[in-house]
Write a structure and sequence with these properties.
The protein is an alpha/beta fold. Helices cover about 30% and strands about 25% of the residues. It folds into 2 domains: about 250 residues, Zn peptidases (Aminopeptidase, 3-Layer(aba) Sandwich), CATH 3.40.630; about 110 residues. The strands form 3 sheets. Strands 1, 2, 4, 7, 9, 10, 13, 14, 15, 16 and 17 form an 11-stranded mixed beta sheet that branches. A 4-stranded mixed beta sheet has the order 3-8-6-5, with helices on one face. Strands 11-12 form a two-stranded antiparallel sheet. The longest helix is centred in the first third of the chain and has 23 residues. About 45% of the residues are buried. Bound molecules: zinc ion.
Length: about 425
């Protein structure tokens, strides 16, 4: 009798739990949020336009309804930062007394003026003919240091492409001076004048403090920017981004509401809608520098979950599956449920490095993207036809639930995924 009652209670509990999750995460709620974010009136949520501000206001209001706290140090949910768009006035430069032409120098700098010589203390790096150009440039960009970089003249063709780095940069980007030369010089002098346009950006961040492990963080994120107004296709010029990534943003909002209601997260949960993903993941790059990476135990980045995956309903994939054991933990937590998570099947697409999870993975955080997007055959990807009418709201609600369930043992502090090796 006791056992029977116990079973009944258990059954009732899991029934009540299912009811609870369905009340918060359901197709109607998904549709309500999507109808705002992907509407034509938000004109594709492009960075540096008033349209994305409307999306920022809406997400903030949803975070407020979920009674999230601001990130420590911020007065509200807006994490404001920005980029600099410089306009060149003049460059004068010489190496070993020989004047450089403008084709032989590229300067990435966020100040109006710059005057340096070999005595200014900038680190010097040489990229020789045998080095890998792309990898070497990436190293410079990720070093976070002010640098002078001498590149062998055999890179002349690639060198011309570097000017794209000067188009726009984060406010606090370090200075990098790239010089094309056949010999590494002993002396150099560089002076630059430019005017600056400041371009504000905003991530939306809300927090649920952890009950027993408040100094350990788990991040749930998606990006709320998209491509805006662009080249018309079949008379439609609004790139709505209903799937990319209003879908991920919708998931973040509903997961925040769900975990608030559950009221039992041991670790601190951070919900983020990133900006500027589409122009180079600048929102997550900035965000990653505001946290101490070892404190962040996991990141669930959510991208394009509005269409059925290649395996059909109730299934999704995890990018960079082998980089940590987080994917296995999620799979274990889904055992016995109707949901399945698979390793990313589109490995040649390098999806692990192509979304906001990469900014956190670079500093060691087990940070993966969960998606259902068929990257070999997603007909509306980056097109004006990425509209709300192409989404499967019911399946999307299920995928959001699967993320909630799969994250359970990480949220509760029971499991801690391995780190990404640097
Ligand atoms: Zn995206």
């Amino acid at each position: 009798m006791k056992i029977f009652l116990f079973c009944l209670a258990l059954l009732f509990c899991s029934f009540a739990k299912a009811q609870k999750i369905n009340r918060i995460i359901n197709a109607a709620e998904v549709e309500r949020i999507e109808r705002v974010l992907a509407s034509d009136s938000l004109r594709g949520r492009k960075v540096f336009t008033p349209d994305i501000e409307k999306a920022a206001d809406f997400i903030s209001a949803e975070f407020k309804k979920a009674r999230l706290k601001p990130l420590s140090g911020l007065k509200d949910y807006r994490q404001s930062f920005g980029m600099i768009r410089p306009k060149l006035i003049s460059i004068e430069a010489s190496i070993d007394g020989k004047k450089l032409t403008k084709d032989d120098i590229v300067i990435v700098c966020t100040a109006e003026g710059l005057n340096i010589t070999e005595q200014s203390g900038f680190e010097v790096k040489t990229i020789g003919a045998k080095d890998n150009f792309t990898a070497s440039i990436l190293q410079v960009r990720q070093s976070g240091k002010n640098m002078v970089v001498f590149l062998d003249t055999s890179f002349r063709k690639n060198f011309a492409r570097l000017s794209f780095l000067t188009r726009q940069m984060l406010y606090d980007a370090p200075t990098a001076i790239y010089i094309l030369t056949s010999d590494v010089p002993k002396q150099f002098s560089v002076s630059l004048k430019q005017s600056l346009e400041k371009l504000p950006l905003t991530n939306i961040v809300g927090v649920l403090p952890g009950k027993t492990k408040p100094n350990e963080y788990v991040i749930f994120s998606g990006h709320y920017d998209h491509l805006g107004i662009g080249k018309p296709v079949n008379g439609d010029s609004i790139y709505n981004g209903a799937n990319d990534d209003a879908a991920g943003t919708t998931a973040v909002i509903l997961l925040a509401k769900y975990f608030k209601k559950m009221h039992n997260n041991a670790r601190t949960l951070v919900f983020v809608a990133f900006t500027a993903e589409e122009i180079g993941e600048y929102g997550s790059q900035y965000f990653s520098k505001q946290l101490n990476p070892p404190d962040v135990k996991a990141m669930f980045n959510i991208e394009m979950i509005g269409t059925e995956s290649k395996w059909g309903k109730n299934s999704a994939y995890i990018t960079g599956f082998d980089k940590t054991d987080m994917g296995k933990i999620l799979q274990d937590n889904l055992k016995g449920s109707v949901f399945s998570f698979y390793p990313d099947p589109y490995t040649t697409e390098n999806l692990f490095l192509r979304s906001d999870n990469a900014s956190l993975a670079r500093v060691g955080v087990p940070a993966h993207t969960i998606s259902t997007s068929k990257m070999d055959n997603e007909p509306n990807y980056h097109k004006p036809s990425d509209e709300i009418s192409t989404l499967d709201m019911a399946n999307m609600a299920e995928i959001i639930k699967s993320i909630a369930i799969s994250s359970g043992s990480i949220v509760s502090g029971k499991d801690t995924p391995t780190r990404v090796q640097q």
